[in-house]
Amino acid sequence: MTLRTGHIGLNVTDLDRSLAFYRDVLGFGVIAEGKEEERRYAFLGSLAGDGRPVLTLWQQAQGSYDRARAGLHHLALEVDSVDQVREYETALRDYGVDFAYEGVVAHREGSASGGIFFHDPDGTRLEIYAPSGAEGAPVPSATAPTCGFF
Predict the structure, then answer these.
(1) Neighbour count for residue 40 (Cβ, 10 Å)
(2) Which runs of E-coded beta strand occur in 13-132?
(3) DSSP sequence for 62-103
């Protein structure tokens, strides 16, 4: 028996605001949506794919993300190339997103993988990375993985 990630669920404070971010900026398609007051949610994925949700948003949070509490550390999204990472970086900057580091950074000293690290509208930590192409990119900390402490 092998487990695979089915989807990631995030609690959000404002579903409309989060939908605008994940749909319009990151490009997720809305597969299904619950609009009943007190039970608002959205299933997001690729509409060109198999129609399975990748990310679910639940309007249940009373406050923003708290990195000091147990639970989700960050959500990492993979793309094929560093050029694609940079395209997302441009769109996110245009949207006014808060970045943890300036530009593409390597995952650790000497790593070929790397990406950008930023926050969604509720402060949830996100990463978009490519498995290669970040050779020579700066490393925020030589002693720890970049994604671990932002």
Answers:
(1) 18
(2) 29-34, 41-45, 55-59, 75-78, 105-106, 114-119, 125-130
(3) SS---TTSSS---EEEE-S-HHHHHHHHHHHHHHTPPBSSSS
pLDDT in single tens digits along all 150 residues of the chain: 898 889 999 999 999 999 999 999 999 999 999 999 889 999 999 877 788 899 999 999 999 999 899 999 999 999 999 999 999 999 999 999 999 999 999 999 989 999 999 999 999 999 999 999 999 999 998 888 999 988
Single-letter code of the amino acid located at 101: Y
Contact 77, 127 (CB under 8 A): yes
Residue written as token pair 């990748």: 54
Are 16 and 22 contacting, i.e. CB atoms less than 8 angstroms apart? no
Dist. CA 102–CA 79, nearest whole Å: 19
Q: What is the DSSP code (8-state) at residue 15?
A: H
Q: 119, 126, 133, 130: which is closest to 147 by C-alpha?
A: 126
At 93 the three-state DSSP class reads helix
Classify 19 as helix, strand or coil. Answer: helix
